[in-house]
C-alpha cells in the first residue's frame, strides 16, 4: 500500500486551495473546448461508410475550410487562456506574498502547482497547434479527392427533365428560395445544395425521380405489413377509461357516461357476436383525436359542461370511443396537439414536411378542428393518408361544399367545407344526409322491468322543458302560459345564485341535473317539450326512450343557411322543417308531435290530445348499443376510401348498365343475370333507380318510395344507357361538373352525366332537372345498412 508523506498531503491541499472557482471554470471551458475539437475532428476523420447520412459527402467537402477555421480559433483561444492564466498567477503570487509577509512566514512550494498547471496548458496549446497543421493537410488531400468525385456527379445533381415528374424543376426552384423557411427541411438533411434538394424531393417527397447513383434499397423497401389480427369483442371497459385520460370536465363527463353504460355495452357485444357468428373481423389500429377539446382550438366546451352548455358532442364522442373499444380494435386517444404530433410522427418544424414514418394507424377519427390541425402539421402526408380519416360532423357536409374547386366557382365555399374527401368520410349524428355516413350515438335501453315501472309511475300532467340555458326560455311566455293550464311544468335551467328571470315563477326549476337524476325526472314526466332550439340533440331520444311524448315546433319557412344565423356557414343547404327532423320523420306519432307554435289553437289541441295518449318507452334500434356496434362494425370492415375510385364515364359511350326496366316500367332494377360488381359495398344488387320529378332531390325521391338514396351507386347510373332503359328521350348527352348530375333537362331534352365522382350527391334539386337517383333498401331500424350489408 502506497503512503503519502506530509509534504505530499500539503501539496494536494495547496492545489485544491489554489484552484479557485474561477480557475476551475476557465479550466472547464478549456477541457470542453478540447473535447468539442476532438469530436469535430472525429467527424472529419471518419470518411464515408455504409449507412452514413445521405449528405455526408457534401457535408465533408464543404466542412473542410470551416473545420480548419475552427481549429485555428481553438488554438488562439487556448493561447489567450494561457496568457490570462499567467496574469492571474502573477496576481495571485503577489497577493500571496503580501499575505505571507503579513503572517510572518513564506513557502516557495505554494506556487509549484500553479506553475505546473501553466506548463500543462501551454503544452496542450502546442499540441492543438500541431494537430491543426496535420488536420489541415489531411483536409486538403480530402478536398482534392472529393472534387474529383463531385466532377463526376455534377450533372447528376441537376433537376432532371422527366415527363413523369413535371413539377420537379419547379419544386427545386422553390427549395432554393425557401428551404430555410421551415426547420423540417434541415431535419431531413437539406443543406442548401442541389443534391440535397433532389434527394429530399425524390426520397422524402415524391416530386422528382430517384437519383441513379443513390442506394435505392432503403428508399424502395416498404415496411412489411403486419400480419392481420382478428378483433375480439371486449366487455371490460376499465382500460378504456384509463385511455380517455382526465383533467378536463368534458373528459370527466364522458368517462362517467361510459362507466354508467358499461353493462349495456357488454350485453350488446354478446348479442352482436351471436349475430355475426364466426365471421372474421380485422382488428384495426385507430387514432381518435378530439380536436375541439384541444387548447389550440379554444376548448369552449369543457368550461361549460357544468353550466348547462351543449353536451351532444361529448355524448357522441363518448359512445364512439366505447364502440371502437368494445369492437376490439387498438385505440389511441389524443386531446392535445402535442399528443397528436407525437402519435403521427410529425417532424420538428412548421408542418411543411411529410411525416417521419409511415402512418401507424389504419383509421383516424377526428372532427373539423382536428382535421385542420392534421393538415397544418402533416405536410404532403395529409394528402397521402387523408383517405383513412373519418370526420365526426354533426350537421353533415354536402358534396357541393366538399369539392374545393366547385364550391369556390359556384358559391358553396364555407369555413368548414372544401376538403375534397369522399363525402362518406363525414359521419353525422343523425341519418339526415345520405351523402355522409351515419355515426349516431346511443340512448340507455330499458329492460322490461324498468318499462313496467315507468308505465305505473307516470304523472299524466307533468311536463319537462327541453332547454338548460336560460336564453332558450326567452320570449316563450305565451306557450308556457297555455301549457301551465294543463300541466305542471319542470325545468332544468342552470343558475349559480339567483333564479333566471327568463323562467316564469310557476315553473319548478331543478337546476342543472346529473344525468341519472335527469333520467329519473323523464321517467315521471308525460311530456318533453322543445322550443325550437337546440337542433337535433340527443335529449328528445332519451325522453322518448323513457316513455315521454316529445312535442316540437314546425318551422315555416324551414330553417337553413339562407335564413337562419345558426346554419349560416355550415357546409349544407339542408332545410330543417322542425327542431328534430329525425324524430319527426323516423319516429312520428304517437311518440312525436310536430305542430305550429304560432297557432295557439293547434298548440293547445296538441297538448289535450297528448294527455289522452298512452305511449310505451321506445328507442329505435340504431340508437341502441347493439345498433351502433353493428353499424360501425360494417363501416370498419367494408368502407375503403383508399382504393382507387372507378372514374365516372366521360360521355355517351360508357359501358352498358347492368339494369333492366322494372315490370311496372317505373324504375330500373339490377338484372338477375348481371354479374355482381366486385368489391361494391353496399352490394349493387340492392340498387333501384328512379327518375325524380323536376325540383325533387334524390334524398326525397327515394324516401317517397320507402327507400334510401345511396350515392355509392351513382357510377352505375352515370351513362346514356341508363337513360335509354328508362325511356328518357336524350337528344344530346354532355358530361359536366355539377352536383345535380346525372339528370335530364325537360325543355331541351338534354341528358347530363357527372364528370367529377366527388360531386355525386343525393342532396340538391332544381326545377330545371329531373335527377336520376340511386336508391336501396335498408334494414329495419338501421337505415345506414341495406338488407344484405352485414
Automatic annotation (TrEMBL):
Subcellular location, record wording: Golgi apparatus membrane
Keywords on record: Glycoprotein, Glycosyltransferase, Golgi apparatus, Membrane, Signal-anchor, Transferase, Transmembrane, Transmembrane helix
GO cellular component, one term: Golgi membrane
Superkingdom classification of source: Eukaryota
Catalysed reaction, written as an equation: N(4)-{beta-D-GlcNAc-(1->2)-[beta-D-GlcNAc-(1->4)]-alpha-D-Man-(1->3)-[beta-D-GlcNAc-(1->2)-alpha-D-Man-(1->6)]-beta-D-Man-(1->4)-beta-D-GlcNAc-(1->4)-beta-D-GlcNAc}-L-asparaginyl-[protein] + UDP-N-acetyl-alpha-D-glucosamine = N(4)-{beta-D-GlcNAc-(1->2)-[beta-D-GlcNAc-(1->4)]-alpha-D-Man-(1->3)-[beta-D-GlcNAc-(1->2)-[beta-D-GlcNAc-(1->6)]-alpha-D-Man-(1->6)]-beta-D-Man-(1->4)-beta-D-GlcNAc-(1->4)-beta-D-GlcNAc}-L-asparaginyl-[protein] + UDP + H(+)
The enzyme's E.C. designation: 2.4.1.155
GO molecular function, one term: alpha-1,6-mannosylglycoprotein 6-beta-N-acetylglucosaminyltransferase activity
Protein name: alpha-1,6-mannosyl-glycoprotein 6-beta-N-acetylglucosaminyltransferase
Gene assigned in the entry: MGAT5B
Amino acid at each position: 500500500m502506497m503512503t503519502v508523506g506530509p509534504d505530499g498531503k500539503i501539496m494536494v491541499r495547496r492545489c485544491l486551495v489554489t484552484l479557485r472557482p474561477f480557475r476551475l471554470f476557465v479550466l472547464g471551458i478549456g477541457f470542453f473546448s478540447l473535447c468539442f475539437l476532438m469530436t469535430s475532428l472525429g467527424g472529419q476523420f471518419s470518411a464515408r461508410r455504409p449507412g452514413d447520412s445521405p449528405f455526408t459527402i457534401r457535408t465533408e467537402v464543404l466542412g473542410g475550410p470551416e473545420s480548419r477555421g475552427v481549429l485555428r480559433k481553438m488554438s488562439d483561444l487556448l493561447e489567450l487562456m494561457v496568457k490570462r492564466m499567467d496574469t492571474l498567477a502573477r496576481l495571485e503570487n503577489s497577493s500571496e506574498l503580501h499575505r505571507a509577509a503579513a503572517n510572518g512566514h513564506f513557502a516557495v512550494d505554494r506556487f509549484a502547482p500553479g506553475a505546473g498547471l501553466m506548463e500543462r496548458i501551454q503544452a496542450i496549446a502546442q499540441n492543438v497547434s500541431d494537430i491543426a497543421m496535420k488536420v489541415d493537410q489531411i483536409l486538403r488531400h480530402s478536398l482534392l479527392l472529393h472534387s474529383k468525385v463531385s466532377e463526376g456527379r455534377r450533372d447528376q445533381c441537376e433537376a432532371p427533365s422527366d415527363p413523369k415528374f413535371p413539377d420537379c424543376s419547379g419544386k427545386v426552384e422553390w427549395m432554393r428560395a425557401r428551404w430555410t423557411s421551415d426547420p423540417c427541411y434541415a431535419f431531413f438533411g437539406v443543406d442548401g445544395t442541389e443534391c440535397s434538394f433532389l434527394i429530399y424531393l425524390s426520397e422524402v417527397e415524391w416530386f422528382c425521380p430517384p437519383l441513379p447513383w443513390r442506394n435505392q434499397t432503403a428508399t424502395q423497401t416498404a415496411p412489411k405489413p403486419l400480419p392481420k389480427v382478428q378483433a375480439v369483442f371486449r366487455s371490460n371497459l376499465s382500460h378504456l377509461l384509463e385511455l380517455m385520460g382526465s383533467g378536463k370536465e368534458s373528459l370527466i363527463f364522458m368517462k362517467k357516461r361510459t362507466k354508467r353504460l358499461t353493462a349495456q355495452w357488454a350485453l350488446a357485444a354478446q348479442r352482436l357476436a351471436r349475430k355475426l357468428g364466426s365471421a372474421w373481423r380485422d382488428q384495426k389500429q385507430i387514432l381518435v383525436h378530439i380536436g375541439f377539446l384541444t387548447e389550440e382550438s379554444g376548448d369552449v366546451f369543457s368550461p361549460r359542461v357544468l353550466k348547462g352548455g351543449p353536451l351532444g358532442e361529448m355524448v357522441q364522442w363518448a359512445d364512439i370511443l366505447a364502440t371502437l373499444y368494445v369492437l376490439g380494435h387498438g385505440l389511441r386517444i389524443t386531446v392535445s396537439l402535442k399528443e397528436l404530433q407525437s402519435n403521427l410522427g410529425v417532424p420538428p418544424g412548421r408542418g411543411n414536411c411529410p411525416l417521419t414514418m409511415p402512418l401507424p394507424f389504419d383509421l383516424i377519427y377526428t372532427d373539423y378542428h382536428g382535421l385542420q390541425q392534421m393538415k397544418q402539421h402533416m405536410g404532403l402526408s395529409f394528402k397521402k393518408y387523408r383517405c383513412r380519416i373519418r370526420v365526426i360532423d354533426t350537421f353533415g357536409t354536402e358534396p357541393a361544399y366538399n369539392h374545393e374547386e366547385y364550391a369556390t366557382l359556384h358559391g358553396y365555399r364555407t369555413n368548414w367545407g372544401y376538403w375534397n374527401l369522399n363525402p362518406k368520410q363525414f359521419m353525422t349524428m343523425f341519418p339526415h344526409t345520405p351523402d355522409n355516413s351515419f355515426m349516431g350515438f346511443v340512448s340507455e335501453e330499458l329492460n322490461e322491468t324498468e318499462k313496467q315501472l315507468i308505465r305505473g309511475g307516470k304523472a299524466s300532467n307533468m311536463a319537462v322543458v327541453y332547454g338548460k340555458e336560460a336564453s332558450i326560455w326567452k320570449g316563450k311566455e305565451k306557450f308556457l302560459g297555455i301549457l301551465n293550464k294543463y300541466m305542471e311544468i319542470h325545468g332544468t335551467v342552470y343558475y349559480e345564485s339567483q333564479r333566471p328571470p327568463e323562467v316564469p315563477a310557476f315553473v319548478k326549476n331543478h337546476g342543472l341535473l346529473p344525468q341519472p337524476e335527469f333520467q329519473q325526472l323523464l321517467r315521471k314526466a308525460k311530456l318533453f317539450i322543445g322550443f325550437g332550439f337546440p337542433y337535433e340533440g340527443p335529449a328528445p331520444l332519451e325522453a322518448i326512450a323513457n316513455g315521454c311524448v316529445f312535442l316540437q315546433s314546425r318551422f315555416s319557412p324551414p330553417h337553413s343557411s339562407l335564413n337562419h344565423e345558426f346554419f349560416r356557414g355550415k357546409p349544407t343547404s339542408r332545410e330543417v322543417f322542425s327542431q328534430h327532423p329525425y324524430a319527426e320523420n323516423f319516429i312520428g306519432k304517437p311518440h312525436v308531435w310536430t305542430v305550429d307554435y304560432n297557432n295557439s289553437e293547434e298548440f293547445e289541441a296538441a297538448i289535450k290530445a297528448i294527455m289522452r295518449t298512452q305511449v310505451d318507452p321506445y328507442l329505435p334500434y340504431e340508437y341502441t348499443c347493439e345498433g351502433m356496434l353493428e353499424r360501425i362494425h360494417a363501416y370498419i370492415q367494408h368502407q375503403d376510401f383508399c382504393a382507387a375510385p372507378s372514374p365516372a364515364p366521360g360521355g355517351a359511350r360508357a359501358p352498358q348498365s347492368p339494369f333492366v326496366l322494372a315490370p311496372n316500367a317505373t324504375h330500373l332494377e339490377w338484372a338477375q343475370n348481371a354479374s355482381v360488381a366486385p368489391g361494391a359495398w353496399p352490394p349493387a344488387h340492392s340498387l333501384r333507380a328512379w327518375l325524380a320529378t323536376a325540383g325533387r332531390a334524390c334524398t326525397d325521391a327515394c324516401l317517397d318510395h320507402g327507400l334510401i338514396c345511396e350515392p355509392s351507386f351513382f357510377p352505375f347510373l352515370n351513362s346514356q344507357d341508363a337513360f335509354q332503359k328508362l325511356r328518357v328521350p336524350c337528344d344530346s348527352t354532355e358530361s359536366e361538373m355539377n352536383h345535380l348530375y346525372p339528370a335530364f333537362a325537360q325543355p331541351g331534352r338534354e341528358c347530363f352525366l357527372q364528370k367529377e365522382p366527388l360531386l355525386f350527391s343525393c342532396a340538391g334539386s332544381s326545377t330545371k332537372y329531373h335527377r336520376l337517383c340511386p336508391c336501396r333498401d335498408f334494414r329495419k331500424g338501421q337505415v345506414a345498412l341495406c338488407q344484405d350489408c352485414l
